[in-house]
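Minutes, structural biology subgroup

Action item carried over from last meeting: produce the structure token record for Sodium:proton antiporter NhaD (Vibrio marinisediminis). EB confirmed the sequence was re-checked against the source entry. Recorded below for completeness.
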Amino acid sequence: MKSLWAIFFGLIFLPYSAFAASSDVTPLDLTHSTVGYAALLIFGLAYTLVMLEEYLQLRKSKPVLLAAGIIWAMVGYVYSQQGQIDIAKVALEHNLLEYAELLLFLLVAMTYISAMEERRLFDALQAWMVGKGFNFKALFWLTGILAFFISPIADNLTTALLMCAVVMKVGGDNTRFINLACINIVVAANAGGAFSPFGDITTLMVWQAGHVSFSEFMPLFTPSVVSYIVPAVIMSMFIPNAKPNVAHVHVELKRGALRIVGLFILTIATAVAFHAVLHFPPVIGMMMGLAYLQFFGFFLRITLKRSLARKAQVAIANRDDLALKRLGSVVPFDVFRRVSHAEWDTLLFFYGVVMCVGGLSLIGYLNMVSEIMYYQWDPVWANVMVGILSAIVDNIPVMFAVLTMQPEMSMGNWLLVTLTAGVGGSLLSIGSAAGVALMGAAHGKYTFFGHLKWAPVIGLGYAASIMTHLWLNNGLF
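Output recorded by EB:
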């Protein structure tokens, strides 16, 4: 979600020649076969339906789930006819392992975000911004800057939805402001997610694949800032200085809200430690972090009566009837209810993407594309093209395809493809989870064509960020 959550991944994305080595049999080249062409057609049709999600009201997970099943059924049939079904089984199991790590990692992250939302942390932040009396231009910059700095932790999808809620609340019927502010939020959230392993699924994929360590993402900070600032400065010139007419509403945090934020930070630190110190997949640390939240939920539950009694005494002493009414609506914190609120459509969409790309890789198409882009072209231009493709197709399948190709690249180029895949999705509203989500949240006010009008301005930021990276981090190439 260029969402978070914003939706997050394999440990090592091996080329499928590794499967051949394990069985001493070369995978079949089906790129010029009926099955190969049919697989491409099916994947293309499925992704067309994904891009039309806003208009068809068809959840994006449905077409890719169906496409994944059909592609693997065709591949399995061909391999079984050739007596090489073991190669296809190993490839299938490899992709399932990749998805299992992705699923569990994202599930924990989404559960924490849902818990923070339930404890009203985001509502309090929203109320604070609305209540400060900022004008439209100030809110444009404030929501953008907050989106940039929150998305590295909370993921770009969730961050974008939070900031959009603020914009919708204060924008009212000012469609021009809402459209520009939403574009600004999408660009900022995607840019902020590009320099952090937790900010975007593509960056997390690169980190878990072992191509870039946790600390080595920091050289992308300045290019990411540039990719946001350039279009933001231009768009801000078209924002009026008038103040919105909104009333301030006080929001009281629920018990344990700030401690859950602390546990989330501890969970991230645990995941980093498992990967950096023990060389285990970060998902092990994330699952351990889920236990932190479960035990804290248990603590909140067993101490609920005592806490309510103490607060009731204070409310009675202060004759605060509203406080007593709020206490009567308090329910125990339930971790598993938070798990159920995860973005399951997004998680299943990732499954479909991973399996579709895996099937196309076994057919041989990714090796073909890799040969053209990374061996016949300059890797820099190949990675620039990855960013442009991510705006059309979505950055997750594009990055998964790159990692599956396993091109030989310098650290500078791995950082470049991470940057372009992250910020390139901002070029179109359908290029990231954040953009797609905001088209739904601000339906009719932030649209595909409303975003498209500003694509040249966003493209300036995209080009400037690439040039900044090539200049500042020249020693990494």
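Discussion: Confidence is low (pLDDT under 50) at residues 1-24.
Next step: EB to file the record with the rest of the batch.
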